Amino acid sequence: MKKEEFKAFVKKHPKLISYVNTNEMTWQKFYEMYDLYGEDETAWKEYITPSSEKVSDNSSSKIVKSGIAGLTLSEVVNWFKNMDLDGIQEGIGNVQRVLGVVQDFSKKDNSKDSLKETYKPRPLYKHFED
Asked: I need a surface site. Which of 15, 31, 36, 76 has the fewest CB within 10 A?
């Protein structure tokens, strides 16, 4: 019964999903909070308030939402932090190797064409030093 109420609470506050997706919180911790405090707004204030209303620690200005799909600056920074740069670099290296192989094949095809143009077969009636 409590589990279904928690699901309904999450549906009312979809912002909680982003905290789980960015690994800031887990569903287990959210459920434990719901079990202890229920839907008390003071307990959920940190997670439910819109990010545009949060005040940053360094300044009193509000966090400005970026134009890219409505992501906040902190979400973009977290996205970059979670990127696997070694994996990306390895993927780029693989693509470069494939392009090198393709270039080698295209160079060999061009060189065969140029050899065909310069090669002139010997007439049949002629022997080696005739």
From this structure: 36
Rounded CA separation 11/14 (Å) = 6
**What is the reported pTM?**
0.38
The pLDDT tens digits for 73-117 are: 888 888 778 888 888 888 899 999 999 998 888 887 665 555 556
d(CA 123, CA 130): 11
Q: How many Å apart are CA 104 and CA 119, to the nearest integer? A: 22
- Contact predicate 49/19, CB 8 Å: no
Number of residues that this document lists for the chain: 130
Whole-angstrom distance, CA of residue 121 vs CA of residue 15: 78
Query: Residue 63: which of 75, 78, 52 has the closest Cα?
Result: 52
Scored b (16 or more CB within 10 A) or e, 3-32 reads eeebeebbeeeeebebbeeeeebeeeebbe
What letter does residue 12 receive in the DSSP assignment? H
